[in-house]
Sequence to fold (291 residues):
Amino acid sequence: MLIFSVFKTLTDQTVTVELKNDLSITGVLKSVDQFLNIRLDSIKVLDEARHPHMMAVKNCFIRGSVVRYVQLPAAAVDTQLLEDATRREAANQTKK
Amino acid sequence: MDDDSPPPPPASPPPPPSGPSGAPGSPTDFLKGVVGKKVVVRLTSGVDYRGILSCLDGYMNIALEQTEEHVNGRVTNRYGDAFIRGNNVLYISAAEPL
Amino acid sequence: MDGVSQGIQEPFDLVRLSLNERVFVKLRGDRQLTGVLHAYDGHMNLILSDVEETIMIVEPLDGASDVPSTVKVAKRNMEMLFVRGDGVILVSPPSRT
Fold:
């Protein structure tokens, strides 16, 4: 749930999603769900020459399970807040 | 490529390492017995980790101390502490008498 | 057991104690990362900053090579990175020794 919340705070930010098939897509994060499925707008594929079939695609839905990484805008992430939230969630998990 | 990554574990907290009973000779009994002992953890990739088993949970997530990574019989890395994600574990073997 | 294991009841404690520390992460696909850990969850999804990724690429042996397989290493850096947990094999905190 914690990571889901983080992604929600990053909506309308530009992120780069790297898939497990090595395709990297940069775009504006429009929405995310609990499975970390991701909707991106105004997308641009890195290395378009290798992925010509993606050239006409302007927006996309990415299934969470095929994601390897998401590069986030560092300025939009409060690391102290993240650590506190992570400790809080960890404490809740062990209590249950 | 990263062919078949297994589905992520359920979002609930990891259950405790042992079931309610832990009858003598059961897997649970074995796992209780090897905590704090030297073990070999083999991953499905064939890589071995030798170290002292600090603890483990119901997903077979493992914490090891003084860990050596062995690939093809050679030491390829050392870690003071290591967390191993349970889905990668093939087996845990005792490396000293129990 | 020695001092390092004090206060570790479950494996995730090891990861929790590494928050705001530089960790080493071994991933599927011959990749490894080092970065400062800021968040994780029960799937081992991670958020790291100041990340260096190292990719080991085993070159397919072409006719000219006398060594059976040469390993090429590619590195890159990323400021802030989410890592999906299903690719994680191992996480190691900075060694305290």
About this structure: The longest strand of chain C covers residues 46-58. The beta strands of chain C are 22-27, 31-40, 46-58, 71-83, 88-92. Residues 12-92 of chain C form a domain with the SH3 type barrels. fold (CATH 2.30.30.100).
